[in-house]
Each structure stands twice: as structure tokens, then as C-alpha cells.
Amino acid sequence: QEYMEFRKERSRMLLSRRNQLLLEFSFWNEPHPRQGPNIYELRTYKLKPGTMIEWGNNWARAIKYRQENQEAVGGFFSQIGELYVVHHLWAYRDLQSREETRNAAWRKRGWDENVYYTVPLIRSMESRIMIPLKISPLQ
């Protein structure tokens, strides 16, 4: 009974819902529990149809520029739901370390070349900053 009331209340608050089944890129780190405190950035890229293999090939090279500080948490792509969608999850101590880490990547020889080849594959992109709940294994 309590659960049914919760569902009814939730349905009044829910404006939309979207589901995806994601697979992990084989070249990316596997997500593992992290000590905090951290903030997380979820970057979502909607790619042009037919470009997933090219995207993956470029990121297989590019990821090495972003693993020094262990900020790369996971890279995923959609299998069911909206297709040609990629999600990158990054961990940072705070927004300042995010800025410093991202700027440092631009100073590394080769990073700009990888970005140059991937930008034309993107239809749209979004960045969300998230703070983990206390129960999350990603702190």
C-alpha cells in the first residue's frame, strides 16, 4: 500500500523519463569505488549516425592524455534507446581541479589533434556536474 502511494505521488512529479542500455568502451578504465570527496562530471555527446567506430578509435588514443590524475571514471555508449550517444564520467576534487586538469590536457602534445578529429563527429554535447550521495560507491 505504501509503495503504491509512493508511485502515485512520484508520477505527479515525473515529467519525463528516458532509458538507455549502455556498454563500456573496452579501452576505458572500469569504474571502481573511489574515496572522496569528489565531484563528478558527466559529459554526454550525441554523435552523427555512423561515426561511433571513428569516435572510439580516436578516444582509444586520446584517453591516455586524461589518465594521469585518475579522473577518467568510465566511458560508455548506447546500445538501446537513443543511439550514437556517448557518456564520459570524470572525477575531480572540485571545480578548480576540473579546470586545472582540463587545461593541462591542452598543454600535452597530441591532445589537440584528437579533439580536432572528434569535434566534427558531434551533433550536440552536454556537461552535468554531480555530487555523489553518501550511499554511492563513487565518493
Automatic annotation (TrEMBL):
**Gene Ontology BP annotations:** mitophagy
Which InterPro entries does this chain map to?
Dimeric_a/b-barrel, NIPSNAP, NipSnap_domain
Q: Which residues form the NIPSNAP domain?
A: 40-137
A single Gene Ontology CC term? mitochondrion
PANTHER family for the chain: NIPSNAP-RELATED, PROTEIN NIPSNAP HOMOLOG 1
Family, per entry: Belongs to the NipSnap family.
- Protein name, per record: NIPS1 protein
What is the native source organism of this protein? Climacteris rufus (rufous treecreeper)
Question: What is the gene called?
Answer: Nipsnap1
